[in-house]
Q: What sequence folds into this?
């Protein structure tokens, strides 16, 4: 099992969710986050005063998938989240040792 974490632009969340669903991947967690990378924020004007916005709004999605679904998951996220502009985001993949469904006690693949 793998944990796939993706940081994407907020307006791409629905597109990514639909692409993952079409790829047969169900269940994800989405969290509103703020951050920056190479994009490095931007300058805004508010009531005549200029200020720098260092942290940009993003959405972090977390998914736990079987080893056989990882490539489909990554492909769906990349296709749906890509705008071709800086700040499109990143995808991180890591191993998951154990998953337990609280309600039933099911474990690992059965709990996904």
A:
């Amino acid at each position: 099992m793998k944990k796939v974490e993706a940081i994407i632009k907020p307006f791409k969340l629905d597109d990514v969710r639909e692409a993952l669903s079409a790829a047969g991947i169900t269940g994800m967690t989405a969290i509103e986050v703020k951050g920056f990378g190479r994009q490095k924020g931007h300058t805004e004007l508010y009531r005549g005063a200029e200020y720098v916005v260092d942290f940009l709004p993003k959405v972090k999605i977390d998914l736990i998938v079987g080893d056989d679904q990882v490539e489909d998951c990554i492909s769906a996220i990349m296709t749906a989240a890509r705008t071709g502009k800086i700040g499109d985001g990143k995808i991180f993949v890591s191993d998951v040792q154990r998953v337990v469904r609280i309600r039933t006690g099911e474990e690992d693949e059965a709990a996904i």
About this structure: The mean pLDDT is 90.
